[in-house]
Design goal:
By secondary structure, the chain is α/β, with parallel strands linked by helices. The chain is built from 10 helices and 11 strands. The protein folds into 2 domains: 121 residues, Periplasmic binding protein-like II (D-Maltodextrin-Binding Protein, domain 2, 3-Layer(aba) Sandwich); 97 residues, Periplasmic binding protein-like II (D-Maltodextrin-Binding Protein, domain 2). 48% of the residues lie in helices and 20% in strands. The chain has a 6-stranded mixed sheet. Helix 3 runs parallel beside helix 4.
Length: 293
């Protein structure tokens, strides 16, 4: 009987010991599970962060530059539009070069780097397009302007008109060079329509772009000058005395288009679309232009 009790005691002790071991084993397992779970969560978070970083890198655009050759009469308004566009597209740098549309056309013909061309007349754009130097589908009639006659602010010729530029009191008239400056071409069109081209040419002093003509009138270097209404609006040193007579010239249209040799045709397309936007057109209108569309 004592022997049996001893065996039972040993079995009880053994069972108790096993229970303790199982309990200890359970505690170790929980710790390991917690550690494993925490590690998995950390790995998942790291993976998510890496994926987000890679996605950001993928969507970030590479910096690029667009070169725009634009008519001199667009200088002021495009300076404002440049700031607007670059603010909305920080990856883009716009580089503008201004001048007479004919001179800019010649630069494109000679292979000068250019993405977008904005001319002050359709003639230069048509010449480039016919030479297969423009992306024909991209060309749009962007703006319309007016041609006006101006005199210095202190001039006594306040009654001057296009028709009476032949008066003896008018000694010199500032005009854009007709072979390369659209406003000069429009002026010749007006004087031809009025039948006084030869008389005015005898008094003409020709400038390389419309801003040169404007500066001559401001300085009093010429008695009168023919410029765009938008250029006249930029100066308080001149007076507009007349607009081109009705029917004397064709519409003054500014076309814009993408040069076929552009290094960034898609980005250039985005910029041309911006120029046609309501936001950009409001700025153009503040400078005296109107939409040609």
């Amino acid at each position: 009987m004592r022997k049996l009790n001893k065996v039972v005691s040993c079995v009880s002790v053994l069972a108790l010991s096993m229970g303790l071991l199982v309990g200890c084993g359970g505690n170790v397992s929980s710790s390991e599970t917690a550690a494993t779970t925490a590690g998995a969560a950390e790995t998942t978070a790291t993976t998510a962060t890496t994926a987000a970083s890679e996605k950001t890198t993928e969507t970030a655009k590479e910096p690029y530059e667009l070169t725009i050759l634009a008519a001199a009469s667009l200088t002021d308004v495009c300076t404002e539009l440049e700031t607007m566009y670059e603010t909305a597209h920080p990856e883009c740098e716009l580089t503008f070069s201004y001048g007479g549309s004919g001179a800019l056309m010649a630069q494109i013909q000679e292979g000068a780097p250019c993405d977008v061309f904005i001319s002050a007349a359709k003639k230069q754009m048509k010449t480039l397009d016919e030479a297969s130097l423009m992306n024909s589908d991209s060309i749009v009639e962007l703006l319309e302007n007016k041609v006006v006659l101006i005199v210095p602010k202190d001039s006594k010729l306040t009654d001057l008109t296009f028709e009476n530029l032949t008066l003896d009191e008018v000694k010199m008239v500032g005009l854009g060079e007709p072979s390369s400056v659209p406003v000069g071409q429009y002026a010749e069109e007006i004087f031809t329509s009025l039948g006084i081209l030869d008389q005015v040419k005898a008094k003409a002093n020709y400038g390389s772009d419309v801003r040169v003509v404007l500066s001559w009138v401001e300085e009093g270097a010429v008695d009168a000058g023919v410029v765009y209404a938008t250029d006249a609006a930029t100066s308080d040193k001149i007076v507009v005395v007349a607009e081109a007579p009705e029917g004397s010239i064709s519409k003054v249209i500014y076309p814009a288009g993408i040069v076929k040799a552009s290094s960034h045709p898609e980005e250039a397309s985005d910029f041309v679309a911006f120029l046609q936007s309501e936001e950009a057109m409001k700025v153009f209108e503040q400078y005296g232009f109107v939409s040609a569309q």
